[in-house]
């Protein structure tokens, strides 16, 4: 962690991705986003959008 922007990014990611936990890496944020996407898809019963 170097800059205040990095700290802000990870703080905001941690607030919106509760599964992130202590893994403050870009990979951890990406994994948290995938988990959040899956949870929303399941809870809202959304069909996959393939774009196009």
Give an account of the 3D structure.
The structure is a single chain. The chain is mostly helical and 52 residues long. The protein has one domain. The chain is 62% helix and 0% strand. It has 2 helices and no strands. It has helices at 4-16, 26-44. The longest helix is centred in the last third of the chain and has 19 residues, at 26-44. The protein is elongated and about 40 Å long. The model has no long low-confidence stretch (mean pLDDT 84).
Topology:
Elements (H helix, E strand, L loop, with lengths): L3 H13 L9 H19 L8
Structural descriptors:
52 residues, mainly alpha, 2 helices
**Based on DSSP secondary structure assignment, what is the total number of beta strands?**
0
Query: How many structurally independent domains?
Result: 1
Low-confidence stretches: none
Q: What is the 3D form?
A: elongated
Number of helices: 2
| Residue share in helix | 55-70%
Q: What fraction strand?
A: under 5%
Strand count, sense and barrel status of the largest sheet are: none
Average of pLDDT:
84
> Secondary-structure element order, as H and E?
HH
Q: What is the gist of this entry?
A:
The protein has two helices and no strands. It has 52 residues and is mostly helical. The protein starts with a helix and ends in an 8-residue tail after the last helix.
């Amino acid at each position: 962690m170097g800059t205040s922007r990095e700290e802000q990014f990870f703080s905001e990611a941690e607030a919106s991705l509760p599964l992130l936990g202590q893994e403050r890496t870009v990979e951890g944020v990406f994994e948290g986003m995938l988990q959040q996407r899956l949870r929303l898809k399941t809870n809202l019963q959304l069909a996959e959008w393939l774009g196009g």
